[in-house]
Structures are given as structure tokens and as C-alpha cells.
Amino acid sequence: MSGAGTPRYCAPEVLKSQPYNESVDVYAFSIVLHELLSLKRPYKGYATKQAFVEAVLGGERPCVENEEWPVRVKEAMRAAFSEQHSRRPNLDEFIDALGSSSCILSTKSCRQNARAA
Fold this sequence. Notes:
Strand content: under 5%
Radius of gyration: 15 Å
Structural class: mainly alpha
Number of domains: 1
CATH architecture: Orthogonal Bundle
CATH class: Mainly Alpha
Distance between the termini: 42 Å
Number of strands: 0
Oligomer: single chain
Number of helices: 6
Largest sheet: none
Shape: globular
């Protein structure tokens, strides 16, 4: 357990240099998914790493209250952002929630969106 990683995507226990398990990957994946869906870098407004870390350790998480996102995706992301790693879904549960959602873009819709841009 090295504590390595880009702080913006690290789970709270990693930022605290505490023991962690594979649930930190679900947390990080959820941050990346949020960035992809919102087209915004998480925690961009913080001037220093210390301010960002304090915000995360204080419970701040990216907002998932987007009306365009399916409820199951928002629920999965909220669970993945949990402070307690035992409350985070495992990767299979997280992927199942995403797979049942209309939010996941098919290759065809990705091509259509790329052409429109």
C-alpha cells in the first residue's frame, strides 16, 4: 500500500495515508466517470493541494445531481464516493449499475456526438 496516485482521484483513506483496499479503485473510477459525464475536472476550484485535500477529507464530493444522468448512475457514484470503503460497491456491482443504464454511450452515439461537435 504505497499511497501513490493523483490526489484528485484518491479516496479519503489514501489521502490520510491509511490502509486501503481495492475499493479505492472504484472511488477513483467514479471520479473519472464524473469527469467524463460532466466534462469538468473534479475539484478544479482549489488553489492548493492542501485546500483540496481538506475539502475531500471534510466530505466534499463531486455533485451528481444532473437531471440528464440516470438515477442508477447517480446512486452508484454516490455509493462509490462513500467515506467508508466498506459502503462502496465492488467493481462488479458498479459496472452492473452502469450497464443497466441508458447513460453509457454506444459506439454509434459516440460517433454521432463527435460529428455534431
